[in-house]
Amino acid sequence: MPSAEVPVFIYALMLHGLIGGLDVFVNHELLARLPRQPWSGPEQRMHSAREVLFCAIFMSLAWFEWHGAAVWWLALLYLAEVLVTARDAVIEGDTRVLPTPERVLHLLLFMNLGALLVLVGQAALGWHALPNAVVPTDYGWASRVLGAMGIGALVWAVRDGVGALKNAVVPAQGK
After folding, report:
1. Rounded to whole angstroms, how far apart are CA atoms 111 and 174?
2. Residues near 107 by Cβ (< 8 Å), separated by ≥ 6?
């Protein structure tokens, strides 16, 4: 299959993966050291859920177009992402003071998520008008980058999920 032209939403999705990865490595691992914090179970549970969702989003948009009623799969993924993000923001605000770099990266992630919702939503409107099908696609290097991001998100989801279980029942750190 020849490579398709890379749509703008794919670039926005790759940007989201880069900003999200930076947030995980700098803020969660280096600054907050979340896996080592006994109070971090609820937050890590939300992070694990988000990483599973982004694995599905990365893979779903890297390799497929979702035509007709199949487009509701994408709507479900993004609705779940918005709900998980909202819950995570509450948990983080209740359990710890976020360092400035984390607050800035979260702002960038929220802004980019809004752009993604618009851009993917535009593609989804067009796809919804087509006959029901899940159509394989290949954006060349961009599909491969998103595929790697999807695998990375899944690996980190398992890591955060294990951390959430390990740190499941402990009082909050307090502010």
Report:
1. 28
2. none
Question: How far is the C-alpha of 70 from the C-alpha of 163, rounded, in Å?
Answer: 34
The predicted model scores a pTM of: 0.92
CA-closest candidate to residue 31, choices 117, 110, 99: 99
Looking at this protein, which amino acid is placed at residue 46? M
Which three-class secondary structure state does DSSP give residue 33?
Answer: coil
Mean pLDDT across 24-51: 93
Beta bridge partners of 166: none
Please tell me the predicted confidence (pLDDT) of residue 168.
77
**Contact predicate 39/172, CB 8 Å:** yes
Please write the tens of the pLDDT for every residue from 60-71: 999 999 999 999
What is the SS3 assignment for 66?
Answer: strand
